[in-house]
Amino acid sequence: MELQKGKEEGGLALGEVVIQEEESLSLLLGTQGEDLCTQEEGGEFVGMEHQDDVLGAGRPKKVLSDDHLAVEIPETAHQISQDSWFQVGFVLTTGINSAYVLGYSGTVMLPLGWLGGVLGLILATAISLYANALVAKLHEFGGKRHIRYRDLARAIYGQKAYSLTWGLQYVNLFMINVGYIILAGQALKAVYVLYSDDHVMKLPYFIALAGLGCGLFAISIPHLSALRIWLGFSTLFSLIYIVVVFALALKDGIEAPPRDYSIAGTKSSRFFTTVGAVANLVFAFNTGMLPEIQATVRQPVVSNMMKGLYFQFTVGVLPMYAVTFIGYWAYGSDTQTYLLNSVSGPAWVKTLANIAAFLQTVIALHIFASPMYEYLDTKFNIKGSALAFRNLSFRIGVRGGYLGITTFIAALLPFLGDFMSLTGAFSTFPLTFILANHMYLVAMKNKLTSIQKSWHWLNVCFFGLLAVLAAISALRLIAVDSKTYHIFADL
Question: Which residues are registered as beta bridge partners of 12?
Answer without folding.
Answer: 9
